[in-house]
Amino acid sequence: MRILAVASLILVAACQREAPAPAPANQSEGAEAPAGPVKGVDRSRKGRPAPDVTFNNPDGGEIDLADCKGVPTLVNLWASWCAPCVKELPTLDALAARHERDGDLGVIAVSQDSAPQGSVEAFLAKLKVKRLGAYHDPKMALSGGLGVEVMPTTVLYDAQGKEVWRYVGDLDWSGAEAAKLLAEGRVASKP
C-alpha cells in the first residue's frame, strides 16, 4: 500500500519541473513567494516575441518559431512520460485537423523527450495521432526559452509571432473553453 501511495505522488508531480520561480519585483521582503504555476490561462507574457531557438521538424531538419509567422500558431510542449500531455494530444490532433483545411491556425506539438525522433513518431502513431507531426526538442531548448515549468504548456502566438497567452496544464482542445481562448488569437492577429 505504501508503494502505491508513493507511486501516486510521483505521478502527480511527474509533469512538473523543479525550478524556483523568481520573486516578483513588487513582493515585499519577508512575504511568502508564490507557489509556482497554476493550471489555467496565463497572460503575463502577452506581446512577447517567440524565443529564438531551434528544434526538429518532422523531417528531422531544424525549425524556429519565427518560421510560423503569418498565421496564429498554437505551440504545445509535451512529453511521453507526462500523463496529462498524453491525455490532451488527441484533442490537439482533432484541433489541427479542423484548422488544416482553413489554414487559419497552425498547431505544433513539440515533444520534449530526450529519446530519438523515431520514438516520438512511434509514440504518436500508437496514440493514432495523425495530424500532429513529430516535432521534437530533445535538448528542451524551447521549454527553456519559454520558461516552461510544467508540462503540458501550450502557447498561442498571433500572426506576428507575439504571445497572446499560455495555458498551463492540459485542456480539451475540442471544447468550448478552448474555442473561446483560440478566438483571442484571431482577434489579436488582425491589423
SSE layout:
Elements (H helix, E strand, L loop, with lengths): L1 H12 L26 E3 L11 E3 L5 E3 L8 E6 L4 H18 L5 E6 L5 H10 L8 E2 L4 H6 L6 E5 L5 E6 L7 H14 L2
Parallel strand pairs: 4-5, 5-6
Antiparallel strand pairs: 1-8, 2-3, 4-7, 7-8
Q: What's the quick description here?
A:
With 191 residues, the chain is an alpha/beta fold. It is built from five helices and eight strands, in the order αββββαβαβαββα. Residues 44-187 form the Thioredoxin domain.
Note down, in words, how this protein is organized.
There is one protein chain. This protein has helices at about 1-15, 85-100, 115-125, 140-145, 175-190; strands at about 40, 55, 60-65, 75-80, 105-110, 135, 155, 165-170. It is of the alpha/beta class and about 190 residues long. It has one domain (about 40-190): Glutaredoxin, CATH 3.40.30. The strands form two sheets. It has a six-stranded mixed β-sheet with strand order 1-8-7-4-5-6, covered by helices on one side. It has a two-stranded antiparallel ribbon with strand order 2-3.
Report the count of strand segments.
8
- CA-based shape: globular
Radius of gyration (Å): 17 Å
> Structural class of the secondary elements?
alpha/beta
Count of the separate structural domains: 1
Distance between the termini: 59 Å
Strand percent estimate: 15-25%
What's the CATH first level? Answer: Alpha Beta
How many DSSP H or I helices? 5
Let me know the largest β-sheet: 6 strands, mixed
Q: Which architecture does the CATH hierarchy give at level 2?
A: 3-Layer(aba) Sandwich
Low-confidence stretches: 1-14, 17-29
Can you list the strand order of the major beta sheet? 1-8-7-4-5-6
CATH homologous superfamily classification? Glutaredoxin
Q: Averaged pLDDT, please?
A: 83
The H/E string reads HEEEEHEHEHEEH
